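Customer ticket, subject: "Can you confirm the structure for Sodium- and chloride-dependent GABA transporter 3-like?"

Message body: Hello, I'm evaluating your service for our small team and ran a test protein. I'd like someone to confirm that this is what the system normally returns, since I don't have a reference to compare against.
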Amino acid sequence: MYFSNFQVWALVYLAFSFRSQLPWASCDNTWNTANCLGLQTLNLTLAKNHTNATSAATEFWERRVLGMSGGIEELGSVRWELALCLLVSWMFCYFSIWKGVRSSGKVAYFTATFPYVMLLILLIRGLTLPGAWEGIYFYLYPDLHHLANLEVWIEAGSQIFFSYSLTIGTLNVLGSYNHYNNNCYKDCFWLCLLNSGTSFVAGFVVFSVLGFMAQKQGVGVDSVAESGPGLAFITYPQATALMPLPQFWTVCFFLMLVLLAVDTHFVTVESVITSVSDLFPKLFHAPVRHEIFVLVICSSFFLIHLIFVTEGGIYVFQLIDYYGCTRACQDFMTVCQCLALGWMFGAERFFVIIEDMTSQRPSVFFKLCWKYIIPLLSMISFILYLVDYQHLRINDWYIYPDWAYTLGWAMTLSSVLMVPLWAAGQMCLTSGTFRQVSVQRRNHLWCVKLVEPLFICRNDQSPFFI
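Agent reply: Thanks for trying us out. I re-ran your input and got the following:
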């Protein structure tokens, strides 16, 4: 549901972008307060003189779009515009995946490539703005004092995990649709190159606009840079409102954001549906039953998701964002996967499989990473997360009630404890001593379907056979 929320917000902004006067550019709207500062008066000096001042973009985001309540304990009513956009989001998701990868694959050709066109347009425009190169300089030449901070590198590693969708199962599920002889080695290389390359180019788009906005307001780039939803829904709309033809650039930006969110949304939902369907193939792989099952899943998530579009929904979103898929979950899952792959299943056995599939034996560096380097670094990151843990706060003033923090940790532990609890259950349900069970599991016969009815199989005591 995480990326679906970005899609909902982006759709609302996209609808408002076609107005002759962008509503986040001025304070002449019904939702604005007496402390509102329009774009023409928004600068650092005036902000200092008005301690309670808020920008027009911030008030549009908090008061018009979200209708923020006083806290998570005040959910309030459902925002009908957000609920309508949410319905559109889940309907698009359903019709993208209701036929399985046959339909989602065709949709992905457009949703995964068209954002690059929008990105290129915004990049060209950003580089031609006055003050853009100050923002790019800020982007390319970081503060060396910050680079000496271990926390910066740990957070960067966490972002790579999140950006590549590692440890959450999406790549594993989508990879299961490949043919046996698919070159997964080459796919991984291109995935990393395109993903990081896109992020690098997107940095020029963002910081060129931030440099332009900083020059307009007469402040430093670090004063206008934000992280999280604020960058996409407060800072960037502010900047586009200062440009000539602001509606065009705003439409380009939010259309790109919608398509990026759509792509990620239906792929993650598809991974959940595929995982469940593969557990019960006779029940859910039938054509009509599959469509009904997808409809039930999407409808159920839509109803659950309605809590996100209430007046207190942003507090729920921030809670899930902070606790639902944390660095602790990523690091612990990484350690478990590396132990399972490098030590239990065996890195050498995995090398044999990859070589048989791709006719290319991976570098020994990967074996060192799977068995030693990655588990060690991930465990260090996991420990540091627990040591440096701080309670979630919103805007440095709102503190969640204790029950919300308990709920947050329950979400974290639901991922962290799943692997050891499942492993313990399997050990208890399998007869024999601990050593016998371990050997039995390790020598378990594994097979890969080639073409029905041919399977290629092996175990530790026998070579490949068909």
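A couple of notes from the result: Residues 44-48 have pLDDT under 50 and may be disordered. The chain has two domains: 2-324, 394-465. Feel free to reply with more questions.
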